[in-house]
Amino acid sequence: MFEAYEADGFFDEMFALEGEVRPHYRTLLNRFSAIAADDFEARRAACDQHFLRQGVTFNVYHDDRGTERIFPFDPVPRVIPAAEWEHLEAGLTQRIIALNLFLHDIYHEQHILRDGIIPRFYIEEAKHYRPEFRGINVPKDIYIHICGSDLIRGADGTYFVLEDNGRCPSGASYLLENRNALKRAFPSLFESLGVRPVDAYPRELLDMLHHVSPHREGEPVCVLLTPGCYNSAYFEHCYLAREMGIEIVEGRDLVVMDDFVYMRTTKGLVRVDVIYRRIDDDFLDPTVFRKDSVLGVPGIMRAYQAGNVALANAVGTGVADDKVIYYFVPKIIEYYLGQDPILPNVPTYLASEESDRKYILEHLPELVVKAANESGGYGMLMGPSATQEEIAKFKEKIIEDPRNFIAQPVVSLSRSPTWCEGNMEGRHIDLRPYIIYGEDVKIVPGGLTRVALRKGSLVVNSSQGGGSKDTWVLK
Amino acid sequence: MLSRVANSLYWMVRYIERADSLSRLIEVNGQLLLDHERLDSERLRAFWKPIILSTGDETLFSEFYSDASSSEVIRFLTNDRRNPNSIVASIGQARENARMVRDQLSEELWEELNSLYLFINSREGELLFNADPTRYYETIRRATFTFHGIAAASIARSESWEFMDLGRHLERADKITRFLDITSFLPESDAPVNGAATFHWTAILRSCGGLGAFRAEHRGEPTAEGVVSFLMFSPGFPRSVRFCVDRIDRNLHSISGTPRGTYTNDAERVAGRLLAELAYGSAAEVLEHGLHLYLDELQERLNEIGTELFQTYVLLPDSTDKRPPIPAANMSAVVAWQMAQQQQ
Q1: Nearest-CB residue to A167 (from B1, B115, B344)
Q2: Mind giving me the DSSP string for A404-429?
Q3: Could you read off the pLDDT of A27-40 as tens digits, one per residue?
Q4: Residue ranges of the Circularly permuted ATP-grasp type domain (chain A) (predicted)?
């Protein structure tokens, strides 16, 4: 299976440069090598069938039939040795603590601005900054309860943080389902390998929600607020609600009275204490934000400000995952914790800094340019593969609105063996761990390994044709 | 539980039951035709027309089809997407409702319904429908039975269950009345009421899956009185109207927590009264009153139970809402907003 495998000079997860298998992959390699190619393919197809039947799908837009697609699954897991994981865990923990301190500061005293660590206008012009929430205390001072920070590995295997997703990170359900799928397809694979289980995630999520409940008496009532069944991640919303044993609600199921939030049940109204919301700030409350939002709950912001309901994640966290603020995260870590960052950022240029901008505009063909507030692989320019026109267009955009762009050198992401129509071939991957910040920080061992299925592609987002793998953290 | 969820569970099961009833109806009548010497097209039309009339979709049918040949009727009722009550459309609706409340359903239950949905929308399903319709309908019926079986074995007997059970029995009672009503639309010469066409009564019993049970209770050929008595008033046969209304009455009282024989809302009042009438009624009275008229009134009352149920448990919690209504947005705008919520 792996006889003809080529690392092509990239950092390969499974093989060292001389074609030597890395020790933490050896058992897996032996077990996979014992499986005939057609058997392997049959098992992979069975995974797809299972996903389809179970409805483990995401909705594809721009399609007249609202097609549901399965998230392509690659059966070759990504393996992370224990020591490597400890390093990642320490770095991610440090990062989320710093980001939460930063958000608390930004929405209160703003020491970091006064001390000139970050120029004030970067914050005030951040798209997701909510000045009206300054001075509002949130339960337990937690802003980002759930964070998905994307990690990539460079040419020498160094892990970098590519971005933080602190508003509404998604994908945890696929991580859990990928593990189930692999267990079904290769039941004997896990024997005596010492793979750490991932199934504690829903319980840890619920513990965190309980922890931020503003009310002491009795079991807190937690709900998951979904935009509805047409959202791309609706499967995940249902999945997590069911796993946690909490209600999944839409805006129209909730009502605010006397600054408390209630849900409408067949037995009348029931008070809600904590809302895990999967809708944007802008849509939460038509009396405060977008007036035409039918997805939100009128008055919910009053209840929130009165401290009668907790929201996870808090309102206004988007300022921390603005890509311009990303540039400052190492400084944020130093400022609040007095520590060096454990996980480095990818070198980043800010288009609004004059010298950086000059460099960006001169080197567009070799850089990746990103808009400050887009996700899902949209609003990007991949310099090396872009046409002249695309480059020219981005040049204009950058000159017009420099605050809104950053640029980074192209990182040649690490590759992992991936089953590509009957052959093992190297494909680029990243890693999306899920960090829960409650009473303490919990990180599910592993995460979602996303893989760019198109040969040579560096874009792993599901919206751009990426797939995913199971991620093993060894004991 | 959430009012919206109760409503979705109820409709999910209603649509599943609808698909099941329709597949029986088509199957049985298709089989029936095989037992008779070749019918000319006029006789065929006469044969199918009552079936179209009984599902209440005749206007829609005549809009799309000029003829009422077997294949046209069967297609219209089975997999014509333009007919919102076709089998395929019903299963699609059932699944859509299930999707909205997926967190309430066990994995097996969802998977059963979703597999059925995937099957009837697949090329494989289409091929089976053309090549072996009997197997096709059997697949649907088995899947719906399996669905009910999984539900019975995996859903706690809580409100969720009661709303699902309500949906199943309301739909079932309604369909029994419609199947019985087929006889009312038959041309005079075929009118089975004068005992000429026992084969129609046999077909109706088969459509309700009750031929065996009927024979165990009644000797001899099915007669109007015998079949009406059995499908209307049998206390023990699970596809009799009385049995269904008894279940409905029980569900309603479990939900509200009031003792049976009393009522706290109009759904309970209508159901309780109907149950009493069914418990003390007789087939002879029904036939004297006029079967068609009687069935019409019965359908209205079943509808009333559904409407009142909605009023009490879905709409009423809304009335606690003092907020000014958000200007009605059209559906496509809501869908677009739902899609626009960023999932990072």
Answers
A1: B344
A2: GEEEEEPP---EEEEEETTEEEEEEE
A3: 999 999 999 999 99
A4: 77-452
